[in-house]
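Narrative progress, year one. The postdoctoral researcher (J.K.) led the effort to move from monomer predictions toward full complexes, under supervision of the PI. The following entry was the first complex the group processed end to end, covering 300 residues in total.
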Amino acid sequence: MKLIDQDILTQYYTSGKEEIAFGRLVSEYKERVYWHVRKMVLNHEDANDITQNTFIKIWRGLPKFKRESNLYTWIYRIATNEALNFIQANKKRIAQSIEDIQLDNRSEESFFSGEEIEAKLYKAISTLPQKQKLVFHMKYFNDLTYNEMAEILGGSVGSLKASYHHAHKKIESYLSNHD
Amino acid sequence: MKPTQTHTEDTFPYLARLKGKNGFSVPTDYFDSLENSILNKVDESNNTKVFSIGKVFRYAASVAAIAIASSIFFFGENDQSTQDEFDELTVSEYFEDIAEVDLELEESLEFDEIVMTTKNQ
């Protein structure tokens, strides 16, 4: 476990200053959680809501957190679950968000100013099966190791590597065909 | 043998070019306000008296069960066995319903994990 995580957890469980420890946790992880979720749901307002819900769940779950697992991967798992539940319940909205970041539909509210090819990347990701999509997100955008991903998503390192390889190939193929 | 980076750029030129780019942005000072929003919500949830709907129903069910048992005891014993079976069935079903409503966070998280695992298969 990372030193900062150990420090936060020690403060949370032993000093009686739970809220201060949680404040440090939020400060440490807010941007990573937000960007992880944002790349999954694309829309800023949705990502904002999901990120806040994630931290509320973390706060409520901390008393029961089993310290044998990594704080980092536990946080990621909660954020991923929150985003997946949102995506499952709002498929049309996600499709709209993908359209919104395409050049023609872009507005100030979309908070996207990337190149056209980058917008196509998100369109390509949306065509992947759910598992490949998640694996691709975690590896390509967040640089998680396969062991960390296995801890978050379950499954073997070998199958995660295979999923990433397939996802990589499909996306590259999509981008080269739509350039 | 070529270095991995070159191999990646050769084989996956688009993804190699896009790696590390982030065309998304956030409103000014967003992350400061995000932190404040989260901590305020935590404060609010700490100050809100949370009570379990399940517990309230459980007390109500206990009172109802006592009332039913008393009325049977005082007002006759006709078809007693059928009446007892009916009461037991109703109350046990009722408790099952309450148990479902009274999900704790841990169970909720476990449920989330199941959902995620299912989606990944």
